[in-house]
Design brief:
- It is a single chain.
- By secondary structure, this protein is α+β, with helices and mostly antiparallel strands.
- The protein folds into three domains: about 110 residues, Acyl-CoA dehydrogenase/oxidase, N-terminal domain (Butyryl-Coa Dehydrogenase, subunit A, domain 1, Orthogonal Bundle); about 110 residues, Butyryl-CoA Dehydrogenase, subunit A, domain 2 (Beta Barrel), CATH 2.40.110.10; about 150 residues, Butyryl-CoA Dehydrogenase, subunit A, domain 3.
- It has a four-stranded mixed β-sheet. Strands 2-3-7-6 form a four-stranded antiparallel β-sheet, with no helix packed on it.
- The longest helix is centred in the middle third of the chain and has 37 residues.
- The chain is globular and about 80 Å long.
- The two termini are about 25 Å apart.
Length: about 375
């Protein structure tokens, strides 16, 4: 069932935000995108720009400085990703690393962290994955041991997006190894906590403007009041977070697809071969039509998933997986076709579509691979 329509005021607020974002993307993000990718550089200037324009806390509750809208949030991520997937990730990871606090944080934790994350005064990150547990996240080995008024964390996390530029990091670790998933807990670490160390920097195929690091927890000592929820609730918090963060990845994927489609369509009109524009070739018209069909279908799934997040619908897990699976696959196929439509030029870094194709791939991998999304989807129909 579709969620109820939003009020005229909410739609008007969303329109104003999207108008601003489109302008910022055209003037500030698009001209920087190729350079960010080539240099593999985190765009601090764009982070500041997003913060200044209140784009970092859109899905946060209004009382903590947000707009309280997942629907507006996914559209903002989509708009930025049309030009630069790495920059879109700045907004998406701010949501990812704030969600555990929004979902299960105490009032004191919400008051301490969410307003600062909404304004961008502080940046956040999310550390679930370990060297031997990615898809099988419940098999994590990091530990957190209570020591008086503190916890002491040990272990290694891998592939952590933007932790190198973050002030805090949500870390998942086992407080009771005997309990399996029920023994995991979630903690708010500060990246300057004693024993919180950055390890290896990863060199990547795409999203090269987003730093990815190993995190080493070396007797990392944090106050006990940084536990989120209760001991043993960590795995549940991690999964509830992914329900609402997967639409953000889907939005990134959709934006990449739309950016590549727009570029390829324009190129076909301009490029002449066999005495006429390529756009007059029926075989290519059909390719473009299929790319449009898939992109629009993906968009409908995503927007419905975001509506369900706003309504706190009981099936957000299912819809989060549906939209992430569809948008990720569409991003990969549309960008691959866009490279094909540009021929040799599509393969060159002078044009953006090869970057978009490289950036698209990650949306099929992180926050649960496409295989894991299928497991989640089939569970809703068939049970575990
Ligand atoms: C650039 C990048 C950024 C990332 N950022 C973060 C981050 O900020 N925070 C964080 O915690 N993690 C992050 N990750 C980790 C990411 O979520 C994991 O890489 C992903 O979940 C897959 O885990 P894995 O790499 O261990 O692959 P594996 O789990 O080893 O999977 C390998 C392959 O086997 C398949 N597979 C595994 N299990 C099954 C199964 N049961 N059935 C069918 N197929 C299966 C997978 O789909 C995949 O194709 C990031 C990863 C990358 C590459």
């Amino acid at each position: 069932m579709l969620a109820p329509e939003r009020s005229a005021e909410m739609l008007e607020a969303e329109q104003m935000i999207l108008d601003t974002v489109r302008k910022l993307v055209k003037e500030k993000v698009e001209p920087r995108a190729a350079e960010i990718d080539a240099k593999g550089e985190y765009p601090k200037d764009l982070r500041d720009l997003f913060a200044k324009n209140d784009l970092l806390g859109i899905p946060f509750p209004e009382e903590y400085g947000g707009l309280g809208s997942f629907q507006t949030y996914v559209k903002v991520v989509e708009e930025i990703a049309k030009a630069c997937a790495s920059s879109a990730l700045i907004v998406a990871v701010q949501e990812l690393g704030a969600l555990p606090i929004m979902i299960a944080g105490s009032d004191a934790q919400k008051q301490k962290y969410l307003p600062k994350l909404a304004t961008g005064e502080w940046m956040t990150s999310y550390a679930l994955t370990e060297p031997t547990s990615g898809s099988d996240a419940a098999n994590m080995r990091s530990t957190a041991v209570r020591d008086g008024d503190h916890y002491v964390l040990n272990g290694t996390k891998v592939f952590i997006t933007n932790v190198a530029v973050a002030d805090i990091c949500i870390v998942f670790a086992m407080t009771d190894k005997e309990q399996g998933p029920k023994g995991a807990s979630a903690f708010i670490c500060h990246t300057d906590d004693p024993g919180f160390k950055l390890g290896k920097v990863e060199h990547k195929m795409g999203i090269r403007g987003s730093p990815t690091n190993e995190v080493i927890l070396d007797n990392c000592r944090i106050p006990a009041d940084r536990l989120i929820g209760n001991e043993g609730e960590g795995f549940q918090i991690a999964m509830k977070t992914l329900d609402k963060s997967r639409p953000g990845v889907a939005a990134q994927a959709l934006g990449i697809a739309q950016g590549a489609l727009d570029f390829a369509a324009k190129y076909l009109k301009d490029r002449v071969a066999f005495g006429k524009p390529l756009s007059k070739q029926q075989g290519l018209q059909w390719m473009i039509a299929d790319m449009e069909l898939e992109t629009q279908a993906a968009r409908l799934l995503l927007y419905e998933a975001a509506r369900k997040c706003d309504e706190a619908a009981p099936d957000v897990t299912h819809w989060g997986a549906l939209c992430k699976l569809k948008c990720g696959d569409v991003a990969m196929s549309v960008t691959t076709d866009a490279v094909q439509l540009l021929g040799g030029y599509g393969y060159m870094t002078e044009y953006p579509v090869e970057r978009m194709m490289r950036d698209a791939k990650i949306t099929q991998i992180y926050e649960g691979t496409q295989q894991i999304q299928r497991i989640v989807i089939s569970r809703a129909l068939l049970g575990k």
